[in-house]
Amino acid sequence: MVNSVAISGDILYAAQGSKVYKILYDKNSSEIFKILLNKEISLTHLGLSEDCKYLIGIGDVDKTVIVVDAETLEVAYTHKFPKRPSAWSTCKGNLVVADKFGDVFSVKLTEPLSDEARKNMEPILGHVSMILDVVATENNVLTSDRDEHIRVCEYPNSFVIERFLLGSRSYIAHLGVSGNYLLSAGGDPVIYSWNWKTGKEISNFNLREYLKLDNDDIDVISVSVTEKEAWVAVQGQPKVIKFTFPELEIVDAFETPHIINSLANNGTDCFAACPKGLIKVCKSASLSPYLELDGPEDILSQTHLRKAPRN
Amino acid sequence: MASEESLEESKKKVYRKEQALKRTAESLEDDEEIELPRKRYYRQRAHSNPFSDHELIYPAKPEDMKWSMLYGGSNEAPTVADVGCGFGGLLVSLSPALPKERILGIEIRVQVTQYVLDRIHALRKQNQGKEVDYTNIACLRGNAMKFLPNFFGKGQLKKVFFCFPDPHFKLRKHKARIISPTLLSEYAYCLRPGGIVYTITDVKDLHDWMRSHLEAHPLFERLSSEEEESDECVKIMTTATEEGKKVARNGGSKYIACFRRTENPK
């Protein structure tokens, strides 16, 4: 299963089962996707450091976040945490990691802690519920949890909570930040855009109505945000929806040949990880360049995020 | 034995249902005498897991809260919170002491909450038209550790009480304690600068835990012992709660620590 994709310029990274691939995207070549490298590392939640020098992902075992040299795919640093990480973010050379226990830790990206220092590690902030996503910016940390809360804290003075962004009706699994604007999505059929610096909701969009789905259980599986655009994929749907951001007006909906696990974009093009490969999102499903990444089937363990309905 | 127990249980259920009906059906103009509810029909085990998904009702955001439904009159939001209010002893005693403030008790146990609601209803009825009419206290069922920011906006609260909280003795359960370094930031968010956190417990270990975490938090400073001693709310907290009375009956000690919310660092 290709669980995650990340991009820097025309270099793509995809995580599949126990492997990580480095792939060149060249739309003018006969070989649109060219696999440059692959290494045996089990990762999920791929992304790049701010300077694009490192590929970062959550390790499959041992409660780790693994920092990989983006050039060679060699493991550069392994950060171990007290509980299994659920999301990470980087800012100013810091790695900010949230876990399923509700705690957030901050460490130096390129300086793993000694065992002794790790034992005494204190969270910089915490929720009582599971944290599902975290974004660190120059002066703030944004976190979202299973109980419909988005919290904006100061950073590094993370004990000062600036505000909560409230109104979501289900868990919030994805935060996409660009400047002062934030896209939030998860188990709510509605996605929201906010000015997280003022706390004002800018806009929202009802995915259930748009997709003409009957039940309320819509799970947004991935979002990808640029300065002016937001791309959204819904679990089980072979489709990527593109919005203006932060207005959330529909620009287009792209049919894809497969269902989607994860999205990434480089400002111009959007790419999607699907169960068995990688798609460049295009006008029509049949024209979408597709790279199959064959490998052993692995089953991602799904955490149950939705609460039981109230009677 | 089993059937006797269930008979007892069903008696309690019937009683609680009757009381709840009285609360909702009766209008306050009604002349019928109303008695205070009897605690024995509402007993519930002392512990509750704060991490589980209870079937809770809470507003999506503080602005959605209809406070007039709880207090009657205006929609003015409460400024004093009693977190884990138990059977409501503190609420009832704070009502005349803080007549200008709306005071909210939050309790996670269903039956205990119901008792407090019935108690407040009866008190309001008995004291209609009097100077102290108990319309400034209310109670709701909720998990304060998870949903405090759903009820209270930034800087809304002047006072927060933590009276005889669950000590959660086991080390691995310390995250379940109502005072923790990360939760204190949430309490600081809801409290305005100058607002006060009151803690009291009969468990020395828990007192040391709460005190040391509050001392370590950058947004709280301890009140001087003179301030603590002269604070009327401290006196009430020490003597008015059911737990406090129980501890006094058993000759136990009570440990008190109060902290002021400071300004955010620049």
From TrEMBL, chain A:
Keyword Amino-acid biosynthesis set for record: no
Domain of life, per lineage: Eukaryota
GO terms under biological process: tRNA (guanine-N7)-methylation
Keywords: Nucleus, Repeat, tRNA processing, WD repeat
InterPro entries reported in the protein's UniProt record: Trm82, WD40/YVTN_repeat-like_dom_sf, WD40_repeat_dom_sf
Known pathway: tRNA modification; N(7)-methylguanine-tRNA biosynthesis
Gene3D superfamilies, A to Z: YVTN repeat-like/Quinoprotein amine dehydrogenase
GO cellular component: cytosol; nucleus; tRNA methyltransferase complex
Localization terms from the record: Nucleus
Keyword set includes Nucleotide-binding: no
Family to which the UniProt record says this protein belongs: Belongs to the WD repeat TRM82 family.
The protein's role, per its UniProt record: Required for the formation of N(7)-methylguanine at position 46 (m7G46) in tRNA. In the complex, it is required to stabilize and induce conformational changes of the catalytic subunit.
UniProt name for this protein: Trm82 protein
UniProtKB/TrEMBL annotation, chain B:
PROSITE patterns registered for this protein in UniProt: SAM_MT_TRMB
Keyword set includes Methyltransferase: yes
Enzyme Commission number(s) of this protein: 2.1.1.33
Pathway in which the depicted protein is active: tRNA modification; N(7)-methylguanine-tRNA biosynthesis
One GO cellular component term: tRNA (m7G46) methyltransferase complex
Pfam family, one: Methyltransf_4
GO MF entries: tRNA (guanine(46)-N7)-methyltransferase activity; tRNA binding
Alphabetical list of InterPro entries matching this protein: SAM-dependent_MTases_sf (IPR029063), Trm8_euk (IPR025763), tRNA_(Gua-N-7)_MeTrfase_Trmb (IPR003358)
Entry-linked Gene3D superfamilies: Vaccinia Virus protein VP39
NCBIfam families (UniProt xref): tRNA (guanosine(46)-N7)-methyltransferase TrmB
Purpose of the protein: Catalyzes the formation of N(7)-methylguanine at position 46 (m7G46) in tRNA.
Protein name: tRNA (guanine-N(7)-)-methyltransferase
Species per Swiss-Prot/TrEMBL record: Starmerella bacillaris (Yeast)
Gene name as annotated: TRM8
